[in-house]
Amino acid sequence: MKIGTVELPDFPVMLAPMEDITDPPFRLLCKRQGADVVFTEFIASEGLIREVAKSRKKLELSDTERPAAIQLFGNNVEAMVMAARMAEEAGPDFIDLNFGCPVRKIVNKGGGAALLQNVPLMLEITRSVARAVKVPVTVKTRLGWDEKSRIIVELAPRLQDCGIAALTIHGRTRAQLYGGKADWTLIGEVKNTPGIHIPIIGNGDVTDGPSALIMKQSTGVDGIMIGRAAVGNPWIFSQVKQYLATGEHLPLPGVAERVSVCREHLQLSAQWKGEITAVLETRRHYARYFSGLSDFKPFRINLLAAVSADQVFRILEEIEESYKL
Predict the structure, then answer these.
(1) Which of the 8 DSSP states describes residue 191?
(2) Looking at the structure, do residues 173 and 273 belong to the same domain, yes or no?
(3) Mean pLDDT in residue range 289-306
(4) Beta carbons of 33 and 236 less than 8 angstroms apart
(5) 136 and 171 assigned to the same domain
(6) 150, 271: one domain
(7) Please, which of 27, 53, 72, 164 could form a disulfide with 38 given CB 3.0 to 4.6 Å?
(8) Which of 208, 228, 246 is the last residue of a domain?
(9) Catalytic residues, which ones?
(10) Domain that holds residue 259
């Protein structure tokens, strides 16, 4: 598969962009486990052009995580074009436009999934950004705003005509947020729409190898993107790819490996964003890092209560010791 000039595996398995999650440390861990493409956290175009430090820092990419994409959101054409040019200078393999984030603080500012209620503006932004940069431009969006406006089948060819190199579709409406079951049928309809020639990537409720295979077979998509199921679980990429290739399940990593990766995750995060922020943001990963372990609740409570990296490291040592065979 190709996105623009970027060569990818025949059926790539990608890490979805997620705020406060897909930072460089976590992207690196997922890359090691087989993620074929990784995405930055979504970056506000207005913050980027105003030189907001947090937005600028999100542009940082390393060669070890390529192919990698920078994702932008906003609702102002000029700001999105300026931000895309700034993002291009950071050297991404492609730039992704976020027209799917359902979070209220983003939507209330007219960004993310809010553009599903203003298709002319969405198309103008897409067309303008695609013309403004030399790297491939892609789009990530949803089925529509709500059940009464599931417009993706009609929207996809129009986005393609704007010059995008690939389209990722999350199988929910904005009204669903992340609840209910993702509907993959419209993703399949887009893929099979006459005239669609860009790669179509499926997203939503891919949680393991079997669900990845079902999405692939039922929709015909060119690749899949995994979001929430990867939180605290970078191994999902190697597990999914093993299952797609052989139909066999990889065994879950042992406790020692889980502890090691969790420890490295916190270490890398502390180096990149500072200890306090790293400790707070890494908390959302703990439950998944150690899912399935019996009698783990006391350790989870202690991990969530820890306020320093040293505290977390001591608890991780206790976990490893407690679950030794």
Answers:
(1) H
(2) no
(3) 94
(4) yes
(5) yes
(6) no
(7) 27
(8) 246
(9) 101
(10) 255-322
